[in-house]
Amino acid sequence: MSARPAAPIRVGIAGITGYTGLEAWRLLTAHPHFEVGPLAAGRGAGRTLGSSWPALAAHSNAPIEALTVDFARGLDALVLALPHGVSAPYVATLEAEGLLDGLRIVDLGADFRLRDTDTYARAYAARHPCPDILERAVYGLTEVHRDAISSARLVANPGCYPTATSLGARVLLEAGCGGPVYASCVSGVSGAGRKAGPRTLYCEVQDSVVAYGVGGAHRHVPEMEQELGCPVVFTPHLVPMIRGMLATISMAAPASLKNADLLAAAEALYANEPLVVLRDAPPATRDVRGTGLAHVHVCLDAERHVAQAFVAIDNLGKGAATQALQNLNRMFGLPETLGIPTVPLLP
Fold it and tell me: In sequence order, what are the residues at sequence separation of 6 or more whose Cβ sits closer than 8 angstroms to the Cβ of residue 62?
């Protein structure tokens, strides 16, 4: 890692009126080396931080501006917490203005996650607007791509479901399991974003659980398959809680696999990972609430030749903003876990 920065690293946040943008702001304002610069939003432009988030009364005078080319001038880094389809055209505009060379960007949206343009077109029913920039983006699952992230100018932060699923499935693959990855995941409602819709109304969510994006229709499926290199059968569920995610991942295990082998595979991958906690029992979402941790438990059903991994993350944390901070730390040569909370909000 490099020496302490001589001056604060100035970071702009676009998408401050959304949940992930707010979580990024919360983390960056407490960071010893990052300084939060301008804030931008779409419909929230022209307001203040306090009027968009009344709980932040002490910061009510911080203005929220429109996302323009000038927003990025004078910044060292840019966090994009924007809806799908907004980041890529904006980044293309920054390149056209010659602003990308001196800027490091972490995109929390989906615009730069899929490397193949044909796969992108099938998943999002549109051509990618800047495939030349897409080729330069690094996928930001830090535990896998940290070396490439360190020298990257543009990092595509993974989705929350792919983060949890990939971290668990990697252990099963390492242990020699085969066939499709079966991932059944539950997520809190904050994963759907702040914009109200019929699926996220209180009367629709409370006292109910629903599966959605089934039959391979969810846009995160090709992202998982790209990262894992095998088919993924993915079933997401929306559950009545605000934040948190639990992934149950199952794969066919070879008859020779022992539980000790599975545990050894988990140790080999994650024993030295600062933000992955190996558990001896399945974790709960409350164990990681408000943190940047991933809690992982693996076990073997020897009678049925099935290996399983259980992964709990905070969908706004390791599934979004804390992973973005983890990547920013890498990009600026800082200790990877600096500023990332590891003590959950209990009870």
Answer: 39, 48, 49, 50
